[in-house]
Amino acid sequence: MNNKSYQAHHSSFGAYASFLLGKIGQGGGFSLSDVRSPNKNIYIGYKNRMMNLLPFANLDFGNKLAEFGLEASENKNDEKINLFNEDSIEREMKWASDSWKAGDLSFKIYSPFDKVKDIDTLTKEEKKLLLAPGFIGEITLDNSNNPGEAEIIFGMQLDENARLLSDNDEFSLLGGAVDTRYGFGCEASEEIQENIDWMTLLEMMDKKSPLLNKLGNEVVLRIKVKPYSKKTMHFAFATYQGGNITSGIKSKFAYTELFEDLEEVMEFLLKNKDYYINICDSKDKELEESKLNEYRKFLIAHSTHSYYANTELLLDKDNKYLWVANEGEYRMMNTFDLTVDHLHWEMKYHPWTMKNSLDLFVDRYSYDEGVKDLEGKKYKGGISFTHDMGVANMFSPKAYSSYERSNLSGCFGYMTAEQLVNWVLCGAVYALNAGDNEWVNNNLDLFDKCYESLLARDLNDDGIIDTDSLRCGTGAEITTYDSLDISLGQARNNLYLAVKTWAAYVCMEDLYNKLGKNEKAMEMQQKALNLCDSLVEKFDVNEKYIPAVFESGNESRIIPAIEGLVFPYVIGDKDAVSEDGRYSKLVKVLKAHLDTILVKGICLDPVSGGWKLSSTSNNTWMSKIFLCQYAAEDILNMDFTEEEIIEWDRVHAFWQTVPCNEQCATDQVHSETGKDLGSRLYPRLVTNILFMK
Amino acid sequence: MNNKSYQAHHSSFGAYASFLLGKIGQGGGFSLSDVRSPNKNIYIGYKNRMMNLLPFANLDFGNKLAEFGLEASENKNDEKINLFNEDSIEREMKWASDSWKAGDLSFKIYSPFDKVKDIDTLTKEEKKLLLAPGFIGEITLDNSNNPGEAEIIFGMQLDENARLLSDNDEFSLLGGAVDTRYGFGCEASEEIQENIDWMTLLEMMDKKSPLLNKLGNEVVLRIKVKPYSKKTMHFAFATYQGGNITSGIKSKFAYTELFEDLEEVMEFLLKNKDYYINICDSKDKELEESKLNEYRKFLIAHSTHSYYANTELLLDKDNKYLWVANEGEYRMMNTFDLTVDHLHWEMKYHPWTMKNSLDLFVDRYSYDEGVKDLEGKKYKGGISFTHDMGVANMFSPKAYSSYERSNLSGCFGYMTAEQLVNWVLCGAVYALNAGDNEWVNNNLDLFDKCYESLLARDLNDDGIIDTDSLRCGTGAEITTYDSLDISLGQARNNLYLAVKTWAAYVCMEDLYNKLGKNEKAMEMQQKALNLCDSLVEKFDVNEKYIPAVFESGNESRIIPAIEGLVFPYVIGDKDAVSEDGRYSKLVKVLKAHLDTILVKGICLDPVSGGWKLSSTSNNTWMSKIFLCQYAAEDILNMDFTEEEIIEWDRVHAFWQTVPCNEQCATDQVHSETGKDLGSRLYPRLVTNILFMK
């Protein structure tokens, strides 16, 4: 991991707010109800003989001065500032932290996360610890070898106008904020000087007395460090979005019930800093001590950071909690085909959020609609679920997503079949792994309805969905792989979706067995076996692969054929995914398929060597690569060498840290260059939690 | 008034939100907690044989298509759209409305305002009518002569993501909104089709069925109009900023206690549309029927629109109302040297807002500080008030403004003396004209303190303030005219401020007389007479003017020497400002002064002919020109010809509608060209309410 220049999210649980930092020269800052970097100057460093700063500021003072009608020649301060270059910095992205070392300075941001018990069972204090919208930053200056006094410099460019925290005399805090919404602060102390101005860093260079231009937008703290000493300071980074924040369903941030305002959040964070640091240290250690290679460790850490930046816990008018995982740059809410990928993370850390999403899909975002065959003949359909629940804090109306539209066969088309399968998979995994019997009992009829709906979509009774929802109008259904080519983009008669459909039957088989409903379990097994046979029949024995789409002579080779194997596996049904189990024929064929296609020029990119989901598209998705790597390694037991795996992981980590380094965790990349093609600042890459045993 | 292309604010009382429209080609849209135009496309027009739109949209579809990776050649729709040009439009900016006519279309925005009784005495329903954050738009299509069906087109580009109002089934509204914060809507009807997409106007050109891309940011309504008929539609334009909105003093918008959300506001506005339209019609008529020339009518209307866009009524944690007039592009809150200019407006329409500001200045934004003479020797000082109460919804700390800083002698210096005089003037005018005896009795000690403070600032006992506050440090006090040259910028020994100081003594003289405190009244009269003598002594009998600053041989000629005359006049003390009254010497000298300087090349710009506040600066301020025109015409009875006055007014109106036409009411302009130099989107120009008899 030589690359240190990449933007990363830093955030807390459910606040839909983050602080971005990490790409050299890009700046960063706070993002609220969004995940994009404002790319403002961040000033973190120290002053001894000269000013030394981490390279997260644009110090083109000539331009800055010109904005204010002054001449650049008036000031040569930029010559007195050393911006550390990449070579002189150490960076460590860990699971729950991110830190930089340069010269005598170290700076670390803690992004706490851990297992969270059902929110309804938490005490108020536990809720406050969990939901405080912010986190801790830690800065240390080692002035041990310096006979002179030094200063820690800590500050940032905020919005057009900002304020000093000392202006609020109800609290004993120093730092900067933008009105009621966000800021950074530390405990007040005599040794800290607050500065605010338009070009604070520039103006304060040769000054002793504080800058106090209250119209300014840059707040910079100077903190004295005595000769021959070492000093560590802690800062709270906090946000506060008050009032009703969502339309459609009226709700506010859950933390607004617990904290009055921004300053109260900061004070709480600082008071409990040890709690948060301990949590982070323990998560960092856990990942560090895992047997994973360094690239995988990095990918897991980076993905986790972007996942939490997208999380949002709301409280509706009836004091009911609502969980929203937002969709990166697209800001769609609880996109179901992301939910099914977040499943593995949420089941491990907070299964109640999965339940929360599944329930809202049932209560508000389900619908019942007929289907049509290729000739347009109409048939009875059944229940399914919307693609998402809205966009940008706007819950969409009942039974409708913000994404899906009629009369399309590509992007923005309906994903009716895919989301139906996703509910069954998420529901069964939650039912079997969370031990929530009450939920299972309440939702048995839903599984029945879903089963009926699956049957209705399979006209020729081979198990494979071969219809499109009538909601498509003149168009056709698509899958989550909307921006890939038809090999993964078309839902009807699609290999990827067929294997996931098989997995849905297997998971229901297991669920009914667990419930003692053996007859129903057998029925599901019959459907799964039937589908298994159908898929095996599609196997091209000469070319040794299954074509991506069973229509129009399609010959694409796709890796996500094996995605569906993950679900039976995670509910512990090893037999279902074993070469010797009851579905051995399918497992063997999928293994042979993967073996055939996972070669350079087919599903390994001939230039980069990275995984390429489809032989006919250069658009490849990190979240799905991780999922399929897991299926290949742990389920299919492919005979990859350790070197092969490390090289793949190295390429995938390189993509995130170099070509995608401005966009935090990025899902869609070009398989040749790794350049971002979409799905930037994305939560979905946490599928790689599966790598953690 | 030939110019029709200028941006204007449209808003309601105290919502600190507006809808901007009017500059051709610039677009417009909603501005919240700000007054700047987002310059988004606004689509208002109709479709019969072709699409006809008012020219408030940028229809460069080539560029738009390129953003989405499409080629311009794919679409030639721009050829089917007629954007009316300036010549084919009629525009009428009236006092409480703004309207456009073009082709078969008329569109009108109503911005209601009227006298407002003390907010604490209003019923809930009266409060709702007053504070509903929004207003009515009216569109009429005259299809009487058309044998075919036509469509009214009404829509706009909103934020990155938007929603349809029909998505919320609790209300029967159609239109568009951005999450919970702002939007436009009308009553639902079968004849209206809602469209949402990224390039809605472009995409819907050749379509019959509605566009329903819920990820879109453009909402456009199509409203059927039958052949040979005429149709009028009403829209609500509404905003909603929930939660605590200010820091420093924690407060929320007063309307949030009355309305739950945006839709409730819209529904209320539409239900009460006749009430609002009647108010506006009546105000429009009142201005229309006044004897003022067309330029003055326009200037009053335009200024009123920008004033209300800057108003903000808050409710603090103790349910106390707080009034804030924000400062245009600078966003400072209750800037006192604007308050004293808003005085005339607020005394006429809502004197309780003036009281509210004065009280907060006393309670939180007053301070007591010593003074220094030119040599730096320190003396006892006295009470004064801060320049402002904060910026951008951030109340500044007790006793400090966001603007003032130590050790400066120009912009951002202290305005201690000026704000002291301003409190006395506002306080006395409120006390005498509002008939609020309780307030007068509560504040008698404040007038005493202010009197003592005035005395303390006059070391040589000639009545003229000749000291600087110790808060200045090494700097010196400035006046409101911060960006002009020293002729108006320096507070010490300044003619403009000296006449205002005289006015302060006169107003206190009248106040004490009214209260039967004759001894005190006589004391004030003595101070006023003394100051009167001192100023008369400064009159240069050869050159027939009083120099702007009584230091360093200053020879600037300034119009605002006469500004102070307004205050005794508005409290009805005609004697004080009469050539035959007790201060006749001063009044005569000021008249002679104005007569001398109001010539081309001195205080009339030699190129434009407009009023130029200072002979030595090209920066001239509209708000102050109006005030001084009023003093010259109504108080000094200068023998201007009707033609002269109309020509001056024509120039001043031209400045607003051509060189400043992107910036709504603009205060600081270049006297030669009328180009904006600062103070854009400004509330202060309502000094011209004095023109309305």
Automatic annotation (TrEMBL), chains A, B:
<dbReference type="GO" id="GO:0009044">
    <property type="term" value="F:xylan 1,4-beta-xylosidase activity"/>
</dbReference>
<dbReference type="InterPro" id="IPR000852">
    <property type="entry name" value="Glyco_hydro_52"/>
</dbReference>
<dbReference type="InterPro" id="IPR012341">
    <property type="entry name" value="6hp_glycosidase-like_sf"/>
</dbReference>
<protein>
    <submittedName>
        <fullName>Glycosyl hydrolase family 52</fullName>
    </submittedName>
</protein>
<dbReference type="InterPro" id="IPR008928">
    <property type="entry name" value="6-hairpin_glycosidase_sf"/>
</dbReference>
<keyword id="KW-0378">Hydrolase</keyword>
<dbReference type="GO" id="GO:0005975">
    <property type="term" value="P:carbohydrate metabolic process"/>
</dbReference>
<dbReference type="Pfam" id="PF03512">
    <property type="entry name" value="Glyco_hydro_52"/>
</dbReference>
